[in-house]
């Protein structure tokens, strides 16, 4: 009788252990699927960020180029006045700073 009780207890423990292992395997599969989905989302976000990083420098350089061109036009228009009057050195300095 003791042997039968021991056998039934071990059998029940074995079923419980197998059931627990199955639940843990299901959770691991679910976590793996969630991790893969997160990785896909992250890769997509990185692609979007890379595309943005390629566009931004161009978008920032275009207005700066326009400002530099305008400064050169102002410098050319004021060239005679600026060369003749050293009192306007502040204007020249400011134009140089904008052009950097």
Topology:
Blueprint (H helix, E strand, L loop, with lengths): L1 H76 L1 H6 L4 H11 L1
N to C succession of SSEs: HHH
Helical content class: over 70%
Please give the radius of gyration in angstroms: 37 Å
Overall form:
rod-shaped
Primary descriptors:
rod-shaped, mainly alpha, 100 residues
Provide a compact summary of the structure.
Helices cover 93% and strands 0% of the residues. Helix 1 packs antiparallel against helix 3.
Structural summary, described in words:
The protein is mostly helical and 100 residues long. It has one domain (2-99). It has helices spanning 2-77, 79-84, 89-99. Helix 1 packs antiparallel against helix 3. The N and C termini lie far apart (96 Å). The mean pLDDT is 83.
